[in-house]
């Protein structure tokens, strides 16, 4: 059973470009969470999605950031017009549907560097 | 605003020592508390605690939750160099907006 997959693992973008980060949840998981880890900071929640629905985006910056989890395919975190402050590790996690178990399993992360 | 405080921030021990890591939290609609181990990659799930006073154990690691004190501890006995990592605690909310709030972590270094 493959774990959470993220790609690319490393992404370099110039200021003003767009960054697209992809996340494929674990098999059987339909809940996806995105977190950002800035240098020297803890992981910060950004957004929680289920298939085709954004459930909670309270941690996402209002501008330039968007996320989706389509019916088919991976979840995408999109950052438009990147700035140096967007440089961080972006982690995706997934959890199973229903039940009482909400363990979130993390992917390896995408390290975004904005030059 | 949800708050998570971990202590100590960093800890250096020798192999074979026993360590206790602390986590205190203030979270709206608390449901559970999760512990993760983070080396230079993704956080790895260790434990999920939902009930007070019940110890969860996995090998040399164990953890317990105290809902009255809004805290949890993670114990590691007979530490090994491979235990060197950042240990993160993350209380999670219940309801439809379930999400984890992470502390900054405790950086544990185990020297041979």
Oligomer: heterodimer
Mean pLDDT of chain B: 91
Structural class of chain A: mainly beta
> Number of DSSP strands of chain B?
10
Relative strand content of chain A: over 45%
Shape descriptor of chain A reads globular
Query: For the largest interface in this structure, which chains are involved and how many residues does each contribute?
Result: A-B, 24 and 25 residues
Description:
The complex is a heterodimer of chains A (115) and B (112). By secondary structure, chain A is mostly beta strands. Helix content of chain A is 0%, strand content 51%. In chain A, the strands form two sheets. In chain A, strands 2, 4, 5, 6, 9, 10 and 11 form a seven-stranded mixed sheet that branches. Chain A has a four-stranded antiparallel sheet with strand order 1-3-8-7, with no helix packed on it. In chain B, 0% of the residues lie in helices and 56% in strands. Chain B is built from no helices and ten strands. Chain B starts with a strand and ends with a strand. Classes of the chains: A mainly beta (115), B mainly beta (112). Chain A binds chain B through residues 4, 33, 35, 41-45, 48, 55-56, 58-59, 91, 100-109, and chain B through 4, 31-32, 34, 36, 41-45, 48, 50, 88, 90, 92, 96-105.
Can I get a quick summary?
With 115 residues, chain A is mostly beta strands. Chain A is 0% helix and 51% strand. Chain A is built from no helices and 11 strands.
List keywords for this structure.
heterodimer, A: about 120 residues, mainly beta, about 0% helix, B: about 110 residues, five-stranded antiparallel β-sheet, five-stranded mixed β-sheet
